[in-house]
Structure formats: structure tokens, C-alpha cells
Sequence to fold (514 residues):
Amino acid sequence: MTTIKPFAAGSYLTNRTASQLTTLKSQLSDLSTQLSSGLTAQTYGGLGSGRSTALSAQATLSALTGYAAGITAAQTRTNVAVTSLTQVATLGIDARNTLNNGLQSTPVNATAAKANALNNLQAALDTLNQSVAGNYLFGGENSTTQPVLDADTILNGNGTQIGLTKFVSNQVAADLGPKGNGRLSQTYPGLDSSNVPISTKITLSDDPSSRADPASGYKITGASPVPTPGGIAASSALNPTGTSATVTIDVNQQPAAGDSLTLSLQLPDGTQTKLTLTAAASGTTPAFSNTGFAIGANQAETAKNLNDALTSALSASAGSTLMANSTARAASTFFSAPNPTTTAANTVVWYQGENGSSDPLSTQSVQVSAGSSVQIGVRANQPAISNVLAGLATVALGMPSSSDPNAAAIYSAISGKAQPLLSSADTSPGTSSTGALPSVQDTVTQLSLASTRLSNAATTNKASQNTLQNTLDGIEQAPTEEVVAKLLDVQNRLQASYQVTASLSKLSLVNYIS
Fold:
């Protein structure tokens, strides 16, 4: 009789026993691998239903690791930027306080203030070139180019382009004019061949450049005698082309002591200054000074004294008020780069970084999570920083020497123009189309808050990372104790199966019957 082996008597039991042995051996092999590797499976396919969770967790963990690296680098960058800007703010505040404290003894303090301001300006410029890991902090989007030229080039130029020092001196010279009186033309023709005063009239005209854009020198806006009518008369008028004004002053009768003449002048930045000259009795005062004039023996002599007093007052005012205005204006123009008057063709451009129209803070950002980023950008030419630099430059280049006879007036004028600029260290310098402009200290606060956000994000990400890692370990990692217990169980079962199989293999009809 023919027998089909797979269906022969006893074949099913034999096949099932072999299959069970194979399964146990496979389990033993898997458990041994788990014990040696510590992993549940060597492939994601071996994880069964947990593979989707494991793959998702691995992707998220990888992203969190990248965020952590970015946050660490950004925190270092932000902390250095905070330290640097704090130094700039401190330099500005200290310079402002020094100016206030020095008003009591200007000849001595002018020299000290000048030297300190120059040192502080150089220190601030160096600070703005700070870098971290080869990346500059104050160049906006451009972190590979040194954002600020070195202090020597900024101050002295590079041989083909003028620096700040020459730029300021050129502006001062242009405003003061060849006579050092604000580009005004003053005429007193009333002297005979023996230099005896014979005229009672003085004329004063401003230069057409005072009405140009940009303006230079003093612009006459009025002349007011007191009392009116009185011994002094004044009239002013524009010339036919409207490019210049002329004031005619006439001592039409002898003034009384205390009568005065006030001349109103506009500076190139639109601010006003006034010069008041007061008549004094002959013999009680010099013939003329910056503030007054003596009443002469006659009207012509009084006019001559008034003319000389006007010359002296204009020279003193131009050498202090106008000079300070020119210095501060030029320094502000220079540090507000790029600008129409500070071009690479004739003047060094101190700022070399990115100069777009976007908010400086947004020029650098770091991704801290899938849906969140922190902005940490800064530009060295932000208005507040530029103002502090301009304020330091105004003091450094405008303060007089201790031997200057007009030191007190110059110190006061320079202080008056520099302090508002230096105040940008801790006070908003103005507003823009997007709102109030931040002071240097405001920017420090913004960056400090950004640093706090980075720290918080790092903490949150670390917690998420730990949770995900625990979840992933629960899926991928094989618990040693559990694997050992299973391994022993499988070994025992396999050993028992081998023993039974061996015993059965020796079974015969003789052994069975016996």
C-alpha cells in the first residue's frame, strides 16, 4: 500500500514537535540577542505596532537635539551682546554725568573730559566688533564682515578718504566762515581818514549758504532794540532774491544806560540763539565786550563801540555755540551711515554691516521649537548707538584746551549739544514710523528677555526630550531582568523538549511492550 508521507500516521505529531523546537530555538536566539544588545529588536520592523511611535519619537528627538545646539550658541551670542551693549550704555551715561559734574571748573575738566571721551569712543568702537565663534554680533544679517572699522581709520581716515576728525573740522570751518563769525558780513563805514567815527549805521548780512540745504553758518532772523522807540533802531529785510537777509542798525540818538539790542540768529540745525548787547555809561565798562558797549561822546562813537561789541559777540558765539552745533551735527551725520553726505567717495563709512530697513532684532533669529523662534539681532548703527558714539565724538573733538580764554562758554555749549546725544544710552532717542526707537539700555533689555526665552525653551525642550526618550526606551530597550527570566524559561522548555524528543526517538515496539 502506498503511503503519502506528510499524512502518514504520526507525521503530524512529528512535524509539530519539530516546529515547536524551531520556534523555541528562534525565541532563544532572539532573547540572547536582546540580552547582548539591550534592544528589543534589531530593526524597526521587529518592534511591531510600536515602530510608528518609535520612528516619530526618533524624529522629534533629532529635532530637539538640533534646537539645543542652536539655543546654546544663541545664548552665548546673546550674553556677549548684552555685555557689550551694557558697556556702550555705561560709557554714554558716565560721559553725560562727567559733563554735568565738570561745569564747576571747566578749564580743568574740559581737558579731562576731552581725553576721557576719546578713550571711551575708541573703547565703544572696539566693543561693537565683538564676535562669537567667528560670527560678528553687531552687523545685522551680515555676521561674517567686521561691522565697524578700526578706531584709527574712523578717526583719521585711510589716506584716500577723510575720517571723523577731518569731517568735523571741515563742517566747523564751513559754518564759522573765513572771519570766524558764522559767515556773516558786517560793515561799519563810519570812520574818517583819522579813524574818527562819523557814521551811526551798522549793516549785518548773512550768507546765502545759511538758507541752502544743508545750511551753513548763521541765518539772521531778527534784531530787536529795547526800548522802542529808543536810541537804537534796527530794521531787517531780505534781498530781492530772497537768498540773504540784511539788518541795518542805527544809533539815531544817544541811548540810555541799560538800553539794549538783541540779535536773533538761526543755527544750521534750525535751533535759535540770541545775542544781547547792553549800553553802559562811559567809563563804567570797557568800550565794548561780548555782552555790552559803552555810550560814547556822540552817536557815531557809540555806534563804533556797538559795532566792535557786535564783532566780539559774534566771534565768541560762533566759536562756542555755533562750533558746538557744527561738531555735534557733523558727528551725528558721520555716525548715521550711510547718508547723503557721508559717502565712500570722500569719507570713510564707519559701519560695514547689513543696513536694511527691517527691525534690527529680526536680523538674527534662532529656532527653538517647531513653531517658535527667538530674535537676537543687533546693528551697530542703530540710532541710539549712533547717538552715543556721536555724543562721545562731540566731546572728544569739541572740548577746548585749558588755555582757551573762551573755555567756559565752549564747555557749556559742547555739553549742551553732547548730553542729548549721550542720553540715548538710557532714553529713547525719538520715534519712527513703527513706534518709539529703543535706547541702548532698551536694546539690552530686549536681548536679556531673548536670553530668558532661550533658557525657558531649553528647559522645555529638555523635559520633552526626557519624556520622549523614556517612551522610546520603553519601546526599543529590552529590560534585562525580564529578558533573563524569559531566556531561562525558554532554555528550560527547550531542554525539556530535547529530552522528551530524545527519549521518544529511542522508543521501539520491544521497549513499548516491555
The longest strand covers residues 272-280. The chain is about 50% helix and 15% strand. The two ends are 29 Å apart (CA to CA). Confidence is low (pLDDT under 50) at residues 34-39, 41-47.
